[in-house]
């Protein structure tokens, strides 16, 4: 079973900032707007699958700008202020270049760096990721996971083709010599 979609809550005062951040930062990953009701919700899609949503929790939630990330404070100071009650969301991409591009775009869109792009061997070999805190302090990760076993599996067709070509070439050359053509 795979995850179909996720929805992050916003407040009336943070919704526009969150919307702008995610529209900009998820664009390099191929996300485009799917459906939106201004100030209430935003759905983003990738490959015609609406899988990422923002929704405004207008009933009973504290509508307080103090809950927004403060770019002047460090990540740790922001976490203390937000009392650590935030979500972690990770998006997987096909290349390290996309991780790097996303990180730059997300920071330019107002995200607070929470882990520069790089290998994360403490997670697994081949795990390359970057982290940014969104305007409400959610930890957003983009990763490219290409473990050695997957690299080897991806190389099998190339290896088989090269071996087949070498064997076929060997027999063709032997036949050509036997026929006096070479």
UniProtKB/TrEMBL annotation:
Domain VOC positions: 2-145
Species of provenance: Humicola insolens (Soft-rot fungus)
SUPFAM superfamilies linked: Glyoxalase/Bleomycin resistance protein/Dihydroxybiphenyl dioxygenase
Protein name listed in UniProt: VOC domain-containing protein
